[in-house]
Design brief:
globular, endopeptidase inhibitor activity, Inhibitor I9 domain-containing protein, 4-stranded antiparallel sheet, single chain, signal, PBI_I9, S8pro/Inhibitor_I9_sf, 3 helices
Amino acid sequence: MRFFFLAFFFTLLVAYAMAVPAEKQSVIISYPNDTPQSVVDDAIKAVKDAGGKITHVYNIIKGFACEAPVPFLENFRVSIASEHQGVVEEDQPMHANNGPGISI
């Protein structure tokens, strides 16, 4: 009986360890200004459905920042580039001076 409980516990432990969520990446997804808003809304919904999180929706440009699973983003990059000329780029710090990171 003790062996059964130990085996059951070990099986649960292995199953839990394998259920680790996919690594997420912070990205900015943007579209040309003439893209219909419904396309951007559909993209936001797709990110949320894939387990991602919207961190910011931009008003000046058509786009948004999000954290999404890497496997989803790999497929998403291909689909939006071919359909709507959308761009997926890594979100990274921007600096206005000559400090570390990308300078403008």
